[in-house]
From TrEMBL, chain A:
Oxidoreductase in keyword set: no
Sequence similarity: Belongs to the RNase PH family.
One GO MF term attached to the UniProt entry: RNA binding
Protein name (database record): Exoribonuclease phosphorolytic domain-containing protein
Cellular component terms per the entry's GO annotation: cytoplasmic exosome (RNase complex); nuclear exosome (RNase complex); nucleolus
TrEMBL record, chain B:
Keywords: Cytoplasm, Exosome
Domain Exosome complex component CSL4 C-terminal: 90-194
Listed Low complexity bias regions: 71-81
Domain Exosome complex component N-terminal: start-end pairs: 8-45
Protein name, UniProt field: Exosome complex subunit Csl4
GO biological process, one term: RNA processing
Location in the cell: Nucleus, Nucleolus
GO CC term (a single one): nuclear exosome (RNase complex)
Source taxon at top rank: Eukaryota
Region described as Disordered: 64-86
Molecular function via GO: RNA binding
Lineage, top ranks: Eukaryota, Fungi, Dikarya, Ascomycota, Pezizomycotina
UniProt xrefs under PANTHER family: 3'-5' EXORIBONUCLEASE CSL4-RELATED, EXOSOME COMPLEX COMPONENT CSL4
Length: 315, 247
């Protein structure tokens, strides 16, 4: 791993108190897993506002509603460890600005995306240099936005999109040990948030785009204690901290006006899973439909936020 | 005809059919429908009887208070100056720009583009309409013409070149660049080409193009006295420039 040699780094994973298995299993009430209070097709509430950063040509701030357990723990804390986390991120758009001298002539807009977790964003402390997963998110975000921007209207210019994640989703419930189904599920929710926020910031910067592109996540989850035969359930906007095990998840960037998907990311093993009886769709189709539905929901918030900031400037 | 048009649009919003409108700036066409591609007020430009048959639908980048100060009610035009006065417009061929000279060489002068003038105000320079826009242009220029204000922000501006043969329309071979521009001058120019990877190309070969603001050796703002000379009001010394017609 790359080390940042220019700064005095704190310990790489030292900001949270250690969690012992006995504490997690002792049933003190501290360690109860958060339960999903929403309907399977119900999204978390989204807060989205544009134009908060005056020096950028466009900006936005996005926040997901914290889960009920987190809200309760904030009012009546039983432990130093928050039961779950909610997504908070800020997006800035700089440009269109001239390309650097070394760059070749480009008849189109050159899009650059940077996604960075703040060091304190997740339970494990992040470094100051972008790591592989952050660069991965940047590439996914760039793909999602490139399909939506009308790049040929901005020749010879570049657009920098920078996202700072202030609070990230958990990959699993904090007291769970990683198991065979484990993956960085939180990244998928983060990417969906990034797409929605970046789209709002681009609209705030008045860059031509085909549609407001929104991100949505759907996941197949199994909440049973043991590996039973019950079919996994499809959940929209699944918070990984609220589920025992996520079988697979899918994030899309979706443009409702054209019914087009610009980015699709599917994770997990859904080949053996099957849906509940009566659902004839394949698992992939169901995941994809769910993610598109979630994106449609996020798009309503996005459209309202863009319209609100527009009406504010028009007066 | 304009009954179903929304007052403001957001990207991806359907505005009308290409059968009844032509697509203007800020819109795009998808499956013979016009969609907005930026967020802003929807404006219908009536058809010119001779050249077009359909009226043009566009989404404005401008805040209405700035764009049409006369038409907007006074309540909305009053707070307009504190909102963003203009949105990123790229230099395009034939657009009029204001630029600051950064380097003068034998064959060319390098400038960095400060403002791309709005196409509407460039097409019909109506003084009453342009007045509100000129206010903030003036503030940009006074800060830009100040030699102490030369920061590294040139990196963030579009760079352009004025070649020796593009300085004026007559006696092109007698042009001496040192007598046309000095570093720090503010030049009004017209874009003739998007150029190569790094520079746009400007021309000042028109009477209304050339140096609009300049400081003398003594550091005072000069006033133009002819198409090729400006004078310092304090010392009375004249300096040579390719001067733009003031009005």
């Amino acid at each position: 791993m790359m080390a940042d040699r220019r700064r005095v780094n704190g310990p790489s994973g030292g900001t949270r108190p250690a969690v012992f298995a006995s504490l997690a299993e002792s049933g003190t009430g501290v360690s109860e897993r958060a339960q999903r209070q929403r309907q399977p097709s119900e999204l978390r509430k989204i807060f989205l506002k544009t134009g908060l950063i005056p020096t950028a040509s466009g900006s936005s701030y996005l926040e997901f509603e914290p889960s009920a357990s987190l809200a309760a723990a904030r009012i009546n804390p039983k432990s130093l460890i928050p039961p779950s986390s909610a997504l908070k991120l800020a997006c800035t758009v700089h440009g269109p600005k001239p390309l650097p001298r070394s760059a070749a002539f480009s008849p189109n807009l050159v899009l650059t995306t940077h996604v960075k977790y703040a060091p304190f964003a997740a339970r494990k402390r992040r470094g100051h240099i972008r790591d592989a997963s952050e660069r991965d998110l940047g590439v996914h975000l760039e793909t999602a936005l490139r399909g939506a921007i009308i790049a040929e209207r901005w020749p010879k210019s570049g657009l920098d999109i920078t996202i700072t994640i202030l609070e990230a989703e958990d990959d699993r419930w904090w007291a769970d040990a990683p198991d065979s189904h484990d993956a960085s599920w939180g990244m998928m929710n983060v990417l969906a948030g990034c797409i929605t926020a970046a789209s709002a910031a681009i609209a705030d910067a008045h860059i031509d785009c085909l549609d407001l592109v929104a991100g949505g996540v759907a996941a197949l989850v199994s909440d049973e204690e043991k590996q039973s035969s019950a079919a996994p359930k499809l959940m929209l906007d699944a918070d990984p901290a609220e589920h025992r095990s996520i079988v697979s998840a899918c994030v899309v960037a979706y443009m409702p006006a054209r019914d087009e998907i610009t980015e699709l990311w599917l994770k997990g093993d859904s080949s053996k899973a099957s849906l509940e009886n009566g659902d004839k769709r394949s698992v992939h189709e169901a995941l994809l439909d769910g993610a598109v539905d979630a994106a449609r929901g996020a798009h309503t918030v996005l459209a309202e936020a863009v319209r609100e900031s527009l009406l504010k400037t028009v007066g | 005809m304009a009954t179903s048009l929304p007052p403001v649009a957001i990207p991806g919003q359907r505005l009308g059919s290409v059968a009844s409108y032509a697509a203007g700036p800020g819109t795009h066409v998808q499956q013979s429908n016009i969609y907005a591609s930026i967020a802003g007020p929807v404006i219908v430009d009536p058809a010119q009887p001779k050249t077009q048959t359909k009226s043009t639908l566009r989404v404005s980048r401008m805040v209405p208070g700035v764009n049409q100060a006369g038409a907007a009610p006074s309540t909305s035009s009053a707070p307009a100056p504190k909102s963003k006065p203009r949105y990123n417009t790229l230099p395009a061929v034939d657009s009029i720009v204001l630029a600051r000279v950064t380097r003068v060489q034998k064959r060319q002068a390098a400038v960095s583009i400060l403002v791309v003038l709005d196409e509407a105000s460039a097409a019909n320079p109506d003084p009453s309409k342009a007045a509100s826009d000129n206010d903030n242009v003036a503030s940009i220029l006074t800060s830009a013409a100040n030699p102490e204000n030369h920061s590294n922000t040139d990196e963030l501006r579009f760079q352009a070149l004025i070649r020796k043969e593009d300085v004026r329309a007559v006696e092109k071979d007698r042009v001496v660049m040192d007598e046309m521009f000095r570093v720090g001058d503010i030049v009004r120019g017209s874009v003739i080409s998007l150029g190569d990877q790094s520079f746009y190309y400007l021309t000042t070969a028109r009477n209304d193009l050339g140096v609009v603001m300049a400081r003398s050796d003594a550091g005072n703002m000069m006033f133009p006295i002819s198409w090729k000379e400006m004078r310092d009001p304090v010392t009375g010394a004249g300096e040579q420039r390719k001067v733009a017609r003031p009005f």
